[in-house]
Amino acid sequence: MTVLTVSMAETGTASVTRRARVLRRLRRNPLAVASFVVLALAGVIALLSPWLAPYSVDQTDFARTFAPPGTAGHLLGTDDLGRDVLSRIMLGARASLQVGLLAVATSLVIGVPLGLAAGYFRAWDAVISRFTDLLLAFPFLIMAVGLAAIRGASLGNAAVAIGIAQIPGVIRVVRSDTLRLKSLDFVAAAVVDGASDLWVLARHVLPNATSVILVQATVAIPAAILGEAVLSFLGLGIQPPAPSLGTMLATAQQFAARAPWAAVLPGVVIMGLALAFNVFGDALRDALDPKGDRR
Amino acid sequence: MTTASAPVLEIRDLSVSFPTETGTVSAVDGVSLDLAPGEIVGMVGESGCGKSVTAMSIAGLLPGSARVTGSVRLDGTQLVGARESALRRVRGREIAYIFQEPMTSLNPVLTVGRQIGEVLQVHERMSRRAARARAVELLTLVGIPSAAQRVDSYPHQLSGGMRQRVMIAMAVACGPKVLVADEPTTALDVTVQAGILQVLRDLRDQLGTSVLIITHDLGVIADIADRVVVMYAGRVVERAPVDDLFAHPRHRYTAGLLSASPQPGRHAGTDRLTEIPGLVPVLASQPDACTFADRCPAADQRCRTAAPPLEGIGGTDHVAACWHPCATAPTPPTAAQEANR
Amino acid sequence: MARYLFTRAWQSALTLLLSTIVVFVGVRALPGDPALALAGEDRSPEALAAIRQHYGLDQPLPVQFAQYVERMAQGDFGVSIRTGTPVSSMLTTALPVTVELSVLAILIAAALGVGAGVLAAVRRGRPAEWFANGLALIGLSVPHFWLGLLAILYLSVATGLFPASGFVPILEDPVDNLHHIILPAVILGTGLAAIIMRQTRSAMLDSLSSDYVRTAKAKGLRPRAVITRHALRNSLIVVVTVVGLQLGGLISGAVVTEQIFGLPGFGKMTIDAVFQRDYPVIQAVVLLTAAAYIVINLLVDLLYSVIDPRIRVTGEPA
Fold first, then answer.
1. What per-residue confidence (pLDDT) applies to B316?
2. φ, ψ (nearest 5 deg) of residue A240
3. Is B197:B220 a contact under the CB 8 Å cutoff?
4. CA-to-CA distance for C21 and C43, rounded, in angstroms?
5. Contact assessment for residue C263 and residue C97, using Cβ atoms and an 8 Å cutoff
């Protein structure tokens, strides 16, 4: 790509062709396609799980506890209370995705404006950077611990804790891209034209920063999913009897020897979701790289 | 060849091609040139004409995907297709390189003394201390003041010109026969350039090193080169002693290059430099035609159907690959060029 | 360099101060009467009054804060509601465990991560790279507590290779200590190893295609020298940065790992405290974690300046 076309892309006039190029690269990448399919499938299943699941999550069957996978009517077996593992996994995955998306959305809503401000206004930068340092000083688990202590454990609090923990990452990424974009000529041109700061940020900087934000999101979602799993596992997140992959693993710990599938399968699903997001995120980052295929 | 002694570097029919996403690219096609001991040969051409690829291929420094054919002989030893271990012994010791960007070409986390000493430790098995002492000597040789203190500096503590001198010191540490300088002055200020070129000249005089200097700057060529090789789209299009080239360019491209650069006397009275219209082509394979034909004011059907051989008239000093070389006097601009003004 | 360190130092101090304030406010933000929260079992009016007096809960907030900081400086973190023992003594038994676990995890992660990252970069395009990349992706995506569970299931319970839980202090029996802590350390280090591997690979790819590596090759250096002395040296800067940034994740991971493997460390102490509403402990834990993170990052910056001479001399990174 010549210098000329790169600049055009940055100003948005060539954004259609750029988007087309990115999509084309993604389509050609088998890993990207595969992971996207997995994610789409997971999304659909998660969305429809209350109707798709063969059993309700707390439907117990004491006659058939610890049924191994493949037993009639229970594709993935049952747990210690005879609850269907498949149904619980489906709804647990739904909850994981909910928390993951909620947490990342929170971090973006708060982080993107702060990142833009920090990158664009020197005065704000000092303050926001100190704020970011402060947030970073509290690891997400400790923050969750603190929140749980103050407000009790719940899905909402888990999402908030994870979201807050991800804000520094978003700020840093957006700030760095804003700094880069700020020095480009088209921003100077807009300023010279008399555009207000807000206008420049909203119409010039932000649209061009979407690629880094997108990449950050695809990296943050699996982290959020894993975070939710950890919190639920420790009892700081989704509380039973609400289904969660983390709580499933926590209870499965006790009878792991008797029913290993209950301890293994939820973990596989968590890993699968996270892996799909990570693989897609990698592919997306490569596709967005203006330097082209570095294979 | 005008020199009596055997050439120290003999390149014959060198061709390099690369596989890329969009197909094969032929970067160098049938390049031949000789470098005599103590000679400074300048290789000139636009960006993308294959000069750097040629230079890097001499010591086998191209990426593994490059396909190199032809012959490169250093004092008789064939380098093309030689084993990597043999090439490593040649690099830094018999053939040395200096590159365009001295800031990025030096390792930022090692002192310049260590980087110079490295070459000595590897090729001459010097101890750390002896290498350091020799590094100080070398720094003095290339004209860096307070060499004893500077030897422990890091690259970012030195100015651009000094960094390039460090690169030169590093290159000549083991007394190589050939120094390949790839655009050594392009990234430097004009005032610093002269100093660097002087260093190269001094090294040639004192150590007898042959220099192959690659540049797109005709001023540098005029300053330092004994002979010139003009490259276009991977081929050598003209080869001549420097004065001869500037006075009587024969290939149309060379004439175009000279017209395009400002020279007092030549352009007195006119307000525009004559450009050569068009861009250097990137070729998948080298056709049997003159690749400059599309941009040449004197091209005809013959030029597009047969590649002109490299030949001269009256003696082999000055050769050009052109079916319609310029007459011995410089030609006045054609109507087309007049229209472009 | 002095100026760079000075800036970092006062920034860290500021962050530390803010963290202290946050924790302080957080505890006081508890619903209800803080005295009740701090009281534990004995809720008699006399006990509550004593607590109020001890913690100065009737005093204006700034005074309380000053007292709080003063006590903290003297190492008095209060008394655990649950056990009745001073928090500081709980810390002295718990911290070494967590520190050992974390340090071991970092070392393992660094060794594995850098090694795999260099391998992947050098063997670009060949099967080894794909393999290493795949492993790293899995390491990034796997829930570590699950990995720990599986490890216990299949490596401890099933085969008896490693103990499933418990801890032996290093001074008592170094070998047994290692035996108990090696599995948790590996599990804890997995995620960090994956991140280090990816960053190293990326940094190495950049280094290997850089001009100074081209120069090194042109000097006739052997591949090993080019990779280690030139490319890797420059990539380490990135690795150190990454480790500093990931410390928060490491601490979180340590909490979970200790829980699963039954290690009597800082993390387990924390979890127990949360469920028991043991506020003095929670307060101390949160504050100490923040302090540790800030201090360690400052040290990382120091380390940075040692590795990268550009920072050392001019105070500015490249």
1. 62
2. -65, 150
3. yes
4. 27
5. yes
Distance CA A135, CA A231 (A): 19
Q: Please check whether residue B301 is in contact with residue B312, taking contact to mean a CB–CB distance below 8 angstroms.
A: no
Tokens of C55: 């913690």
User: Token pair of C296, please?
Assistant: 């360690």
pLDDT band at C194 (very low <50, low <70, confident <90, very high): very high
Q: Which chains touch B (3 or more CB pairs under 8 A)?
A: C
Beta carbons of A207 and A12 less than 8 angstroms apart: yes
Cβ contact, residue pair A138, C290, below 8 Å: yes
Between CA A225 and CA A220 the distance in angstroms is 9
* Residue B240, strand partner residues: B228
Strands B9-20 and B23-35, by their bridges, are: antiparallel
* Amino acid letter, A224: A
pLDDT digits (tens, 9 = 90+) for A72-81: 777 777 777 7
Q: Which of B85, B93, B107 to mutate to test the interface with C (most CBs of C within 10 A)?
A: B107
> What 3-state DSSP class applies to B19?
strand
Which residue matches tokens 């649950």? C82
Which of A133, A264, A284 has the highest number of chain C CBs within 10 A, making it the mutation to test binding with C? A133
Segments in C220-278 forming alpha helices (H): 223-225, 233-261, 266-275
Q: Choose among C290, C284, C275: nearest CA to C80.
A: C284
Nearest CA in chain B to C308: B109
CA atoms of C209 and A151, how far apart (whole Å) = 52
Q: DSSP assignment of A128-183, as one string?
A: HHHHHHHHHHS-HHHHHHHHHHHH---HHHHHHHHHHHHHHHHHHHHHHHHHHHHT
| DSSP-derived 3-state class of residue B319 | strand
Cβ distance of A267 and C252 shorter than 8 Å: no
Answer whether B98's CB lies under 8 Å from B182's CB: yes
**Residues 6 or more apart in contact with residue C42 via CB below 8 angstroms:** none
CA distance B112 to B155: 6
Residue B190 to residues B157, B257, B262, B291, Cα–Cα distance (Å): 21, 20, 15, 33
Q: Answer whether B112's CB lies under 8 Å from B142's CB.
A: no
d(CA C175, CA C127): 38
Q: A280: nearest CA in chain C?
A: C137
How far CA A151 is from CA of A134, C30, C38, in Å, comes to: 21, 8, 16
Nearest CA to C191 among C121, C122, C128, C143?
Answer: C143
CA distance C311 to chain B (A): 10
Q: Which residue has the tokens 């100093």?
A: B195
CA distance B250 to B329: 9
Both structure tokens of C289: 């974690």
DSSP reduced 3-state for B111: coil
pLDDT digits (tens, 9 = 90+) for B215-226: 988 889 988 999
Average pLDDT of chain A, as a whole number? 81
Instruction: Name the pLDDT band for B315 (thresholds 50, 70, 90).
Output: low
Q: How far apart are CA A219 and CA A241, in angstroms?
A: 30
- The H or E element containing residue A188 is helix A185-192
Contact B119, B174 (CB under 8 A): yes
Task: Select from B74, B75, B119, B102 the least CA-distant residue to B199.
Answer: B102
Q: In sequence order, what are the residues at sequence separation of 6 or more whose Cβ sits closer than 8 angstroms to the Cβ of residue B28?
A: B14, B15, B16, B17, B50, B53, B54, B57, B234
Distance CA A215, CA A219 (A): 6
Average pLDDT over residues A236-255: 82
Residue among B88, B104, B154 minimizing CB distance to C309: B154
Q: How far apart are CA C157 and CA C163, in angstroms?
A: 8
Calpha distance B123→B131 (Å, rounded): 11
Chain-chain contact of C220 with B101 (C-beta, under 8 angstroms): no
Q: Judge contact between C264 and C97, C-beta under 8 A.
A: yes
